[in-house]
Amino acid sequence: MTTPWRRIWPALVVAGLFCLPASASQEEVDKQQQQLKQLQREIAEKQAELIKQRSSRNNTTQKLKQDERAISKQAAAIKANLTKLNGLNADLAQLTKQQNALEQTYQGQQQQLAAQIKASWISGKGEVGQLLLNQDSADKQRLLTYYQYLNQARIDAMEAIKATKIALEANHQAQLEHRDQLKKTQSKLDRQQLDLKKQKQQRQRTLAKIEDELRQSNRSLSRLEVDSEVLSQAIEEALIALANQPLKLDGLAKLKGKLAWPISGKISKKFGSHRQGQLRWNGLVISALEGQDVKAVAPGQVVFADWLRGYGMVVVVDHGKEYLSLYGQAQSLLKNVGDSVKEGEVIALSGKSGGLAQSGLYFEIRHQGLAVNPSPYLKRL
């Protein structure tokens, strides 16, 4: 941080240059003026360099924001296509099962029709002649009814076979279409995975540049302080924006010790533990692999879903009665501002956005604008 002395020393030097004795020669005056001009040039160069450094830091931060937003979008698309792929595979398995059942039905119907034809032929060998010669109208009527029944049974059997055959053909066509969709979806998924890999590599380059700038300027502590203030301000603004859309929510006070964990993993940073300088962690950092499901701990409404410096991709859920839960450093956000969420609903994917080296989830609970220890609210592991 720039000290007051460093800020005022150029002014003191300049003032000193003007405080020349009255007896000073013209040569000395000219010399001092040359020194003054040189000093002014150096000050201007330092100011230009400072402006350039600040602009560079801002540009690099914006680049990180763009990189992590792109990763978030790509990861969400991959998640959607994986879900689609699983659905197509399940449908295909069901179609295969249906095909096997239809084939068994088809074989059974063919055997039934063959048996009917055979029985009709055997029983009708002598009865056709008897029907023609028999003068008993009652017997004629009985035989005619019997043959009509057999004939209708054969017709019904043939219609059933026809319907089963049509169903088999439709099943076959559906399987072909599903396999084609599977192939296209898998191809798209492969391209998205490749793009995601490139975006992560770009993020690493941007992150390395930020770390280099922080080392050179030694401003990491003040940066963390500013990041914390920005987070609080963003949440406050989001709540104000959604103040006219109140939902009937009961808060978290009655759910202490009952909330499910937002993600499975080991706690790497506890609430209140030392972070840097005088700063302490306002939440929990839970270690987890990238791309794991992050779930809402309770019903609520999304009031913020975007990138924030120092926290990466963040989603904040309002649970009512001034209770909020915050989920940071996500790889991807799956909900938008205004969305209602249920307890246990997937709202994000774990990651390491915000310039972090290790993947996981940053989780906070806030009440009346202040961060509180989340652990008493969560179920014991």
TrEMBL record:
Ribosomal protein is among the record's keywords: no
Keyword Signal annotated: yes
InterPro entries in alphabetical order: Cell_wall_metabolism_enzyme (IPR050570), Dup_hybrid_motif (IPR011055), M23ase_b-sheet_dom (IPR016047)
Membrane spanning stretches: none
M23ase beta-sheet core domain sequence ranges: 281-374
Entry superkingdom: Bacteria
CDD domains linked to this entry: M23_peptidase (cd12797)
Coiled-coil parts of chain: 22-56, 85-112
Record's protein name: Peptidase M23
Region (Disordered): 178-200
GO molecular function, one term: metalloendopeptidase activity
Entry-linked SUPFAM superfamilies: Duplicated hybrid motif (SSF51261)
Biased composition (Basic and acidic residues): 178-198
Organism listed in the record: Ferrimonas aestuarii
Signal peptide: 1-24
Keywords noted in UniProt: Coiled coil, Signal
